Every structure is written in C-alpha cells, then in structure tokens.
Amino acid sequence: MLFPKKVKHRRWQKMRKDPDKAGNATRGTRLAFGAYGIKTLDYDRINANQIEASRRAAKREAGKASKMWVRVFPDRPYTAKPPEVPMGSGKGDLDGYEVEVKPGRMLFELDGVEENVAREAFRKGSAKLPVKTKFVARNQFG
After folding, report:
1. Which of 3, 128, 132, 110 is nearest to 57 (CA)?
2. In 3-state terms, what secondary structure has residue 13?
3. What are the DSSP calls for 104-132, one per residue?
4. Max mean pLDDT range (18-22, 86-90, 128-132)
5. What is the pLDDT, as a whole number, of residue 141?
6. Cα-based distances in Å from 57 to 75, 90, 106
7. For residues 39 and 31, what is the distance between their CA atoms, to the nearest angstrom?
8. 3-class secondary-structure state, position 102
9. Which of 69, 89, 70 is nearest to 81 (CA)?
C-alpha cells in the first residue's frame, strides 16, 4: 500500500469537495511513459487501498511482460472516528492516505501489450475505482 514517508501535518482540514468549483486537471493529463492509459472523468478522492486494488487487477490481466506506471500518489491524510463515539471529543485518528483527482488526470499507464489486452486490463482495474475513467491510447503517427 502506498503512503508517504513523512507529512508536515498529521491531520489536514477536510476542504470542500465541490466538483463544480474543482475545475479540470492541468498537470498529469497526457501519456508520459506508456502507450495506453486511463484518465479520470470525475472529481473525487481515491485512497491508497483503491489504487492498489486497481493496480493489481489491471496488472494481473495484462500479464508479466507488461510494464505499468502509477501516475498518482496518495499523500493527503484522512481521519475517521471509531463507531459509536459521541459528537465532540476532538478529531478522529489517522485512517489512511488519499489523493484528490480532478477530471483529466492520468491514473495509470501501460506498455508492452496489445491494445485489446490493455483495454480489458484497464476495464477490470477501473471497476475498483470510485471515479469514471476513460481509456486513452498514444497516437501512433505523431
């Protein structure tokens, strides 16, 4: 599972999850390493467990000969209070790490396989994610 070695603040403020005000991603929107990739179409937060589950499902379908890149890293801590705890009594304990993704952000890239294999691998991998995704392929002529 992915998590940062060190963070400046152990508990962050929540921040608003307003997809209308989020805008589109400006960084990490193009294929940089592989020939195929998936990008997000929604605004959401993806936690480390979801990223790992998606990566495993896609890699299992793609096979050993393929090379896969994960283009997002969960560096934002989130907290949760235990069940049946009354209101008040402070903020909850650290529960894990997540990454905030905006529409257009590239999540995974894949190389070394045929397009139909990559498409099927990313279809299975994207089923594990809380966002809608789109399959993209590198233009072979340019």
Report:
1. 128
2. coil
3. T-EEEEEESS-HHHHHHHHHHHHTTSSS-
4. 128-132
5. 54
6. 22, 38, 17
7. 10
8. coil
9. 89
Picking from 15-19, 24-28, 50-54, which range would have the lowest pLDDT averaged per residue?
A: 15-19
State both tokens at 109.
Answer: 């890239």
Radius of gyration of the chain (CA): 17
Written as six digits, the tokens of 65 are 């000969």
| Residue 44 one-letter amino acid | D
Taken in order of first residue, the domains within the chain and their CATH numbers are 32-75+95-137 (3.90.1170.10)
Q: Coil, helix or strand for 79? A: strand
Q: What is the pTM of this model?
A: 0.90
Residue 110: φ, ψ to 5°: -140, 145
CA distance 53 to 3: 15
